[in-house]
Design the sequence.
């Protein structure tokens, strides 16, 4: 029998902990907005009811849990994804991420090739930026089941030497920390770790207006929020390309903003201890 068991992913991990593990305390995790997941809500509710605590990663996610399971309010807690600004800055300086720019604007995106991460939108926005005559190189980090679909889209737009797929990287932080603009094209997120990491590394950010984005970004202050279409994403990126002062202002604002949250671990300790 364990002191505490944690199901760190909604679905089977939570069910396994609740139904098949002997432990004094059982904690379930939810990393996204429940309404965005293709799930059996009744089954999830039964699992949550058997857990001692249900942890999610943002207030928006907790509010969505409350909407669906108001009777379980006392079980729901927020523990944000933990990022360390000091550690990320150190890791980002380990190696040179990109070849000499020669006047190019370097854009970076991190995310799996999966529906929620919406990488196809980034490819379409890249094609639009090239059509407008912008000199850019867009590097993507990540793998996933939709890679072949993304490769086809890149090829169809003639972007093979412009939208560069780097695959997985054990240390993505030099790529985030050394880019000119970081772009997150997600359809939805619980709370994006990649955005928090880009903020810790003080990068100018363009991000889509998914449901929980305002938990992380104040439009025009520490990032730019765009509509979920290629034209508006291209507009916002192009605005940063052409306005160096705006890029520097976003970077400076992030340098003065509290972006690391190592103290969140104390909330987790408290949940374990009861």
Sequence:
């Amino acid at each position: 029998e364990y002191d505490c068991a944690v199901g760190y992913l909604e679905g089977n991990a939570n069910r396994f902990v609740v139904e098949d593990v002997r432990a004094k305390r059982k904690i379930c995790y939810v990393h996204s907005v429940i309404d965005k997941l293709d799930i059996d809500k009744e089954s999830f509710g039964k699992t949550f009811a058997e857990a001692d605590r249900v942890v999610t990663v943002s207030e928006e996610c907790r509010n969505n849990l409350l909407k669906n399971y108001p009777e379980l309010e006392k079980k729901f807690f927020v523990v944000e994804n933990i990022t360390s600004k000091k550690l990320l800055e150190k890791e980002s300086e380990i190696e040179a991420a990109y070849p000499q720019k020669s006047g190019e604007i370097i854009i970076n995106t991190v995310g799996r090739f999966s529906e929620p991460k919406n990488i196809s939108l980034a490819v379409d926005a890249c094609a639009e930026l090239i059509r407008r005559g912008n000199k850019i190189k867009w590097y993507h980090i990540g793998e996933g089941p939709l890679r072949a679909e993304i490769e086809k889209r890149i090829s169809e737009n003639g972007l093979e030497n412009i939208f560069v797929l780097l695959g997985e990287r054990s240390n993505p932080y030099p790529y985030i920390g050394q880019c000119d603009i970081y772009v997150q094209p997600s359809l939805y997120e619980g709370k994006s770790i990649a955005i928090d990491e880009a903020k810790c590394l003080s990068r100018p950010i363009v991000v889509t207006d998914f449901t929980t984005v305002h938990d992380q970004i104040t439009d025009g202050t520490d990032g730019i929020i765009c509509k979920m279409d290629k034209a508006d994403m291209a507009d916002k990126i192009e605005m940063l390309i052409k306005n160096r002062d705006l890029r520097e202002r976003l970077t400076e604002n992030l340098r003065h903003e509290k972006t690391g949250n190592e103290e969140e671990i104390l909330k987790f300790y408290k949940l374990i201890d009861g």
In short: The beta strands are 2-7, 23-30, 53-56, 76-78, 105-110, 136-141, 163-165, 181-184, 205-208, 224-226.
